[in-house]
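Case study 2.
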Amino acid sequence: MESNSQSSSNSQTISDFSRWDAFGRLANRGFITLKVYSVLGRLVRTLMNKVEQPGSYSVTFSASGLASGVYFYRLRAGSYSQTRKLMVLR
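Prediction:
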């Protein structure tokens, strides 16, 4: 995943996620969730919530309707979980 992503536009690409092999591809078929939360822990958006086959994936997150500030996105794939910071700038 791109960490500490910053953007002055209204969309942000979150890529390179899930259980990765050495080449940056999803190594095993599995259920993936990718969610964006406010700093208070409130769910803002669900970007992915499905089973995916092995491969490379990316998701474009539109920050339209969100205030400037810090948000967090959490990726879960099987027992793997990772949380990163995302900044929305206007």
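The domain at 5-88 is CATH 2.60.40.2820 (Immunoglobulin-like).
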